[in-house]
């Protein structure tokens, strides 16, 4: 059975990773409660159940794109980090004279390649997220899915995912730019106007956060409902309507958990191996551990959302 087949009914009671219970007696308990909106306990249990049932496939789809990206980032970090550290030391020494030392010519190309690798990591994160959504949806519905099938679906949906990401970036950047420009304009007018300027900037960033939250579920809409970038953003806007604070709370919780775990994994080279991140060896090993953390944590956010 391929990942492109239409969904089938959930598994019967006692089968699959969820073992759905039979609906309650309508006369005794009223109408059966729907699956949505899910509470925190349901979301965490479903996420843990899906991960336990399909963790090899989930980690596999996270490993392959990250392995490709970090195969470039590790050697580039080893080349660039010592030179960047030398330039930073020279910059600190030049602060009293207010003269910024120029970037070394042999550092410009590694920095450009690192920027391209970072852009590739963003694309890899989109593909991994889409593949995790495919796997999570298939497991929840009781359908078979393979690593190859999940990555294939994610790659086919990648143009719409990239388009939605670009639209999200442009919208957030545009709102922030308008707020900063008008805020700076009010700053010129004195103390009272300066307060309005600060208020404009705060409102702009609040609006930017609001837009980002309302468009949080566009990858799920693009992948599962096979929508385009604009339709996926519109679908996410409607889905999150009325649950914005809940979604924001889950985003913050996911960010705290993944941030702490990533920081813990990234600190291993310095804490245990006693490696200096400014050296070539330390930078290479530290970047490799960053890739390990990205791989292990990749399934969390898509499954929860």
Explain what this protein looks like in three dimensions.
This protein has 305 residues and is an all-alpha fold. It is built from 12 helices and no strands. The chain has helices spanning 26-29, 40-94, 105-141, 147-156, 158-187, 191-214, 218-224, 229-240, 244-266, 268-271, 280-297, 300-304. Helix 2 (40-94) packs antiparallel against helix 3 (105-141) and helix 3 (105-141) crosses helix 7. It is globular.
Proportion in helices: over 70%
How large is the count of helical segments?
A: 12
Separation of termini?
Answer: 26 Å
The outline comes out as globular
What structural class should be given to the helix and strand makeup? mainly alpha
β-strand amount: under 5%
* Rounded radius of gyration (Å): 24 Å
What is the overall pLDDT average?
Answer: 81
Q: How many beta-strand segments?
A: 0
Low-confidence stretches: 5-34
- Main sheet: strands, sense, barrel: none
Order of helices and strands: HHHHHHHHHHHH
Provide a compact summary of the structure.
This protein has helices spanning about 25-30, 40-95, 105-140, 145-155, 160-185, 190-215, 220-225, 230-240, 245-265, 270, 280-295, 300-305. The chain has about 300 residues and is mainly alpha-helical.
Salient structural properties:
mainly alpha, 305 residues, 75% helix, globular
Question: Strands, helices and their partners?
Answer:
Layout: H1 26-29, H2 40-94, H3 105-141, H4 147-156, H5 158-187, H6 191-214, H7 218-224, H8 229-240, H9 244-266, H10 268-271, H11 280-297, H12 300-304
Helix pairs in contact: 2-3, 2-4, 2-11, 3-4, 3-7, 5-6, 5-8, 7-8, 9-11
């Amino acid at each position: 059975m391929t990942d492109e087949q239409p969904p089938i009914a959930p598994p019967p009671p006692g089968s699959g990773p969820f073992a759905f219970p039979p609906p309650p007696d309508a006369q005794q308990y009223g109408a059966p409660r729907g699956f949505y909106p899910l509470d925190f306990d349901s979301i965490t249990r479903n996420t843990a159940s899906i991960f336990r049932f399909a963790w090899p496939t989930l980690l596999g789809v996270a490993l392959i794109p990250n392995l490709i990206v970090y195969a470039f980032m590790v050697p580039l970090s080893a080349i660039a980090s010592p030179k960047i550290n030398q330039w930073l030391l020279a910059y600190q020494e030049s602060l009293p004279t207010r003269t910024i030392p120029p970037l070394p010519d042999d550092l410009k190309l590694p920095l450009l390649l690192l920027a391209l690798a970072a852009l590739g990591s963003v694309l890899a994160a989109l593909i991994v997220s889409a593949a995790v959504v495919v796997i999570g949806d298939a497991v929840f519905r009781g359908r078979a899915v393979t690593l190859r099938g999940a990555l294939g679906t994610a790659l086919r949906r990648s143009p719409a995912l990239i388009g939605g990401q670009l639209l999200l970036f442009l919208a957030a950047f545009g709102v922030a730019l308008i707020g900063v420009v008008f805020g700076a304009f009010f700053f010129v007018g004195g103390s009272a106007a300066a307060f309005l300027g600060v208020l404009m900037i705060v409102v702009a960033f609040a609006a930017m956060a609001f837009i980002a939250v309302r468009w949080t579920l566009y990858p799920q809409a693009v992948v599962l409902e096979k929508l385009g970038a604009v339709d996926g953003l519109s679908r996410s806007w409607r889905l999150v309507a009325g649950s914005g604070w809940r979604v924001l709370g889950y985003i913050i919780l996911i960010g705290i958990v993944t941030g702490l775990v990533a920081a813990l994994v990234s600190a291993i080279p310095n804490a245990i191996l006693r490696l200096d991140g400014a050296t070539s060896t330390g930078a290479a090993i530290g970047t490799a551990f960053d890739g390990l953390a990205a791989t292990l944590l990749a399934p969390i956010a898509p499954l929860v959302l």
